[in-house]
Amino acid sequence: MRLPFNKWFHKLMPQTRPRFGVPAAAATILSLYALDQATKWLVIRALPFDSERPVIPGFFTLVHWVNTGAAFSSFSEKNGVFIVISAITLVALAVFAIRGAFQQAATRVALCLLSAGVLGNLTDRIRHHHVVDFLLFNLHVPFANPWPAFNVADSCICIAAGILVVSAWREERNSGRF
Predict the structure, then answer these.
(1) Active-site annotation, residues
(2) Cα dihedral sign for 33, 84, 67, 157?
(3) What is the pTM of this model?
């Protein structure tokens, strides 16, 4: 049975099967997810909460900080909302992947990175009721002194977003509409 919104959705999304290897995508997602969870586990075990350990003084510090919000600690104390948003995002990514939305290699890589990142932070929110951040860089620029702490999952999400923006820009440019 098709719901009314499916008319526009089916026109938007191709009816072809996805052209990416599910085993390779699953292996990539699980590897990045495992790396994220392993690094957070090490930080929780090795660094006391709210502590800092300089690695490159004045530039890079390992920290054990938590975040109950989104990027830059915005919307703090909204952990439940972000659990729901993350779960919806993972389901949406799966649906779009099944429907064949990620046809180019770059977008398939972005799908894997985004899925691993969302899954990693979702696991933290469910397990710890916050996200564990541990990488802190001081870029010595006025608006980012220091840059907010982040983790492997955050890196995956940001890299995926960058890949998707560049892919969309290239597609626009190649179609002659730009």
Answers:
(1) 133, 154
(2) positive
(3) 0.81
